Amino acid sequence: MVISDILTPERILCHVQATSKKRVFEYFSKLLAQETSSLTSYDVFEELLGRERLGSTAIGKGVAIPHARVAQCNVTLAAFLQLENGIDFDSIDHKPVDLLFALMVPENSTDEHLEILAQLAQMFSSDEFREKLRHTEDCGDKFNLLIHWKPPLN
Which domain does 59 fall in, by range? Predict the structure, then answer.
């Protein structure tokens, strides 16, 4: 799976003013629900919140990857938010989160879900990549960074 298959420029928001997880999930819910007629923003919100209740999706270094497998969803979708100011996300390193990549996959797509999460974890583990993303002002340029990321050659 490549990021350009699941993320569009319309599902990227930059310089977002949000002060809580709930508000972040509201943004993601609207972005993701508009792409599928089988889901409402309320459905998406409840799925993301339900997953978050199981444990924080923050992975450290200012990054969170909220995600959910959704029964009514028939296509994998992603959205990205960069917050103007980091928020508490119960991160393992206790750092505020300002980069968030949300993922919604069909309920029966367990393998695809895990593969994408692993790819995102690798992407956001790069200090250089995170800093480029944070310091790129234009949302379109952030989109290009996200879709053109390639894993490092070992």
Answer: 3-148
